[in-house]
Here is the input.
Amino acid sequence: MERNISISAASLQIENASAKAAIYDDAMALLLALCYQVDYRTGAFTVVTAPPEIMARSLPQRHNWSIKNAHDYIHPEDVEGFLQFYDLCSKGEPGISRTIHIRILVSADPIQYKWHYSAIVNKRFSSGSASIGFGVLQNIDEQVRRELCLRERARRDSLTGLLNHGGMMQTVEESISKPGSEGGILMMLDIDKLKQINDTYGHPVGDRALILTARAIETGVEKDDYIGRIGGDEFMVFIKAASADSLNKRICDMRKQLAALLAEAEMPFCVNFSAGYAAYEDGDTFESLYIRADKALYRSKAECSETR
Here is the structure.
């Protein structure tokens, strides 16, 4: 009996040691990063040291990195930022550290990029100049993607999946402030008598009407346009290119599509919406465009009320 107990205790110690070693290895694989040297005279990057775990998990197979072929291994959307980062580092004072988050090519077939964190600190020479920098590169792909997912969820309306007020404000502002932007048209839509639907049939049915309205609006826009639900019964659409005539036709088509969706869902009521819009003018901000579109919406609602 004593012998069996002794064997079990020894086995338990081995298992615990193995488990601790596995945990340690995983922790070190996450903490360690590739170290590299950059020669500002040639623009070449040289890998100094990299743990096998890191090399296998997150880094590209090629190591002949150079500032001259940055477009070969940096995501197209990140190349300009990376070149600016490199330029600042090359002109920076020795001992100063700079950091950047970039997407690096880790697979060519299929093409796959992963987010990495990089920091460079310049070496100090007796002359005071900095011709060489030392850097680290670490895979932070999962962390960044989680953050981006949370950020995107914060921009979305939980019921319809469309952009919310904050998401529309940011997206439209970015669009109209881009150099060379031709602006667009901001359209406001308001569901008529939603409160009456909620009071009569209940909020779950009213929510269903909102979802169907969102789907109907989506059929009347292009892939580069933006749609949002900015309030209880209010929707917003930013259309980059449209004439007044084509816009009125789109609104008519949306109403027809909404009627078809309501009939298909066997809703015991009809739903309509009022619409108003404003075209971008030089100097407009989101706020000024929003104010004019909102006024146009309420003029439209007032006109509809007078004709009923």
